[in-house]
Automatic annotation (TrEMBL):
GO cellular component: protein-containing complex
Classification of source organism: Eukaryota, Metazoa, Ecdysozoa, Arthropoda, Crustacea
Source organism: Daphnia sinensis
Transmembrane segments: 859-882
Region listing for Disordered, in residue ranges: 910-942, 996-1086
Protein name, UniProt field: Calcium-activated chloride channel N-terminal domain-containing protein
Biased composition (Basic and acidic residues): 915-926, 1031-1049, 1062-1075
Amino acid sequence: MFIKKTLGVGLVVLCLAVNVGSSFIKLGQQGYENVIVRIGDDVPSTDCVKIIDRIQVMMQEASNAMCKALDNRAYLGNVTIVVPSYWTADGNCLVDSSIKWPRIHQADFIVGQNHPVYGSRPFSLQYGGCGVSSLAVRLPLNFLNGESARGVEIAHEWFHYRYGVFEEIGINGDPLYPNGYQITQPEASILPTSCTNVPLKGNWLGNEWQNSYDNDNVTSSIMFSTELPTINRVCTKENHLKAPPTKQNWLCGGRSVSEIVHSHPDFINNTQSKACNQTRFSVVTDAHRGYHIVLDVSSGMAVNNLMENAVFAASHFVWFLPEGSFVSIDTFSDSHSKVQQPIELNMTTKNQILASLGNIQVTSGNTAALGLALDNAIQMFRQGMEIIFVTAAQQVPSNFSIYVEEFRRNLIAPYILALSVQTSKLFSTLARDGRLYSIPSWTKTPLLPGTKHWNPQTWMIDTMQSVYSRTRSYRAKIEERTVEMVDGWNNGTFQLDSPATNLMFSFYHLDDGYAMTFKRGSLLSPINDECSLLHVNAILLYSADCEITSFEKGTWSYFIDVRGSSTVRMDVWFEANPTIPVKVESWTNSFQNQPMNWATGRVIIYALVTEQQRAVSGLNPVVHLIGDNATDAVISVTLNENNPSDVTKGDGIYSAQLINLPRYSTHFSYILEIIGGTGTVDSGIFNGHPSAGSSIPSSQPTPRSTSFNRYVYGGSFQLNYPFDGRDVLPPGRITNLAIVNFNSNNATVELNWTGPKDDYGESTNYIKWFVITGEDDGTPGVETGYFNGTVQPIPGSLDRMTYTVNVPITNTSRNVYYRVYGMDTAGNKGQSSNIATVYVPAAIIPIDPEDQTELPPALFWFLIGLACVCFFLLVAIAIACTRRYLDARKRKAMAADWVQIGETTLDLKAPNNKETAKKAEPEVPDFHAYSTPSPRRSNEYLSSRWSDNSYSAGSEVYQEPERIFTTARIEAPTNSGVHERPPIRPGLPTYSFGENWAGNASPPMTVTPSPKKVPPPPPQRKFFPYPSDMSKSENKMKRTLQFRDKDDTPLASSPSYLAAQSRKENLSYRGDRQMPKSYSEQTLTSASNSSLGRFGIILGADSEASLV
């Protein structure tokens, strides 16, 4: 037992327990509450104020980073800092003594010295799959005090711990998560393994990627890097990169960090953003004082001597508690009894408590008073007591759920030893935040010397000792034996593999013990220090009472003198500084002690083995699994470091997926053994993040010098219903899917992979049935099946597979992501493989007429008829609109001050009003005109065209009639290289004015202005289009007009009249192309209303108009 000289050490040295599913963190309107930061016992109190201040600063920065990354959805609202108990001796380290709930074993963050391998880097070990929380976050003291420390690094680890997401960076040389990758495409370059919102800038220096300084636009993801100062987000579904071989892509099926985080229960009913307030801090010490034991004494405890076994286990537990601890004991059945009020332990009080326990008897009552026991347990917890229930209750009060919520509200994590299947079911909700231990109620192993033997008594004793190891100081059980004590001296040895602060050697009877009488005994250390053995009078327990100050490493011997004989159980535990011995802890993947469905999920047992915080590799831990049904045999399973359920090799975590479970049991307990283990540890330094790669490479693997034994109790789990032997185990996972060829001509991809074995890879049968799926950027989140069938291995191989699939062709460039998984003959699907990515360039898709769906004949002719009706309707509308337009033009022309005669273009738009008409400018005539002051223009105009032009009504010529032409002359066009007359137009004669076409000017002439300032109304005219004009395509929109009087005789001023006169006088062109002398000025005057448009000449409606 504990010696008095080491009691103080026993109280100070606290365990670094694995925190799996026992945290009370919850997300409310004030952010995350009940977050615990524990300062380890190896941190000195000399700078306690500075250390506490620094923790507060860094946790506040982490809260701000978390808030930013989660879009104001969560932050650290309340953080409780638990300091070592001995810090309170320093008057500067003030603590809040009113806070009683925090416990060191529930810490979410642990502050300690640098890790011997990982150095000053914050880290958390991840053991489970996607969405499974990691172990507690370790914050080295040097990191907190470092000048370059940033809160985003703590937020990075929080995402591991709370949400179960993974790294988005690779490790150089890692087989699964390398630091670079290529997408199959022409001239593919090596890209850094990452997840960023914009392409990362940098370059490769050898095998290492160096980020550029020009990455200011990179804001995600903090799971990729915390070194770039602009990174403050996580990758979302929209910008997540599926191609990089990151741990996040591999273990979460290509889903983004944001998708996993927001599917966490914290955010299911919490979708609103919050104002991220300042974090509230409290500084306390561990409120633990001792243990409150609640024993069930109802009729259910009378079965299989459960009452006697429970009393002995409680007595054994109290006897080996360190002096200075407090203990209280209650019993319940149909009444509630406080057997022992909280009392501090010493040798006197221990014997007093053992005597009280020996007087407890089973009753015939029920468990009606369970509620009173629960009420008192809540009060005891508030006084710093851990709650231990030992019960076989078959029913609970109707208001039991109220007590469950009350335990939750008071942040109580009870330890419940359930002695029946029904008890486990009833108390699983109460043990949600604590531990539920299903104690086997039957004895299957033979009671033979040298063999393994477990019964309800041994299970309860070892389980209660594991509760102590979890809540206080780590107790390593290094020996358990079934020994036949014979008359006389009995001796033997055991190995203590580490220097210890306390050693607990004991033995007790596995039979009734009446046939044996203990006389004397002793322990002898490797340096011949002696400890005497004594008999605990109150119970049949024999233990060592040592007065030495230290317990040496090496071979210890025992010598026991008895009369008679008995089969006994011999146990040896020791305690030591938690950083020295090999420490083994175990747990399962059962979440909050709830039953698991073996048909849909895996049952996994884990173990963490460390020495001085270094991972111990190369061991073979064995689990012995015992069910609640006596007909089921004990099953033994070996844990290993390379199990598919273990996400990182070399981190000290071992695991095993249970393939064949017992057929009739639903509640299981197990013991984990390491017998004669040696293993290796890494004596070097690992500079990378321990969670980033598929393994942690050992730089200096060093074999351990001594072997050791460990026996770990306390693990248990429940099933929804018994395992019926069906094949529900899927094939192993494909880890090396690759694209070996991409043919862009026929759009095919050749995939290659190693086929797995069945049953998580544990079977000898290779899988032949595979399913190939793919997803592309064009339809994110939509997975398409490309193949489902049998694939034969490559000739000469058993497991090398290859298959060619068609690439979907689209008119956009995109990445296509392929996955493959195996399927066994029972239809069990394996996990999807790694992602193989190919870049598919855009392609023009030809239209295959055979793929076009033909219209029904009736519908086809209906559409043709509808199109014809629409066409004729549009033509009718166009004709009607044109006629209305022409009528409007006619009315405007009749009402105008003057009109143009001769050829005109009818589709010109007339001014809408007089004001606009005043500002309208006439088009430039198609010849050179030199004139004295003109009412229209006073400059020279040049045009290269030789065509008719028209002027709109309302010209300014009539607004200033006093400004008239005095002279005018007409010249041939300057751009006519050969001085030819214009081409003769059918139906109209061509005239030549002036000397000739060689450029000689015609003689000037004078036009006498009229005294009238307003022209008279135009004569009544009729309009007849020349038929010949319609024969020319350029004249389709033109009409040449003839003007006649009422009696249809041509007006003297019309072009047709001039043509007629020309024919009468037999006018013709002369050889020198001069106009005949008989065509006098008077003829021009009489034709003042005509339009000689063929020469660009337009005459006004009366004598005030002039040549322009």
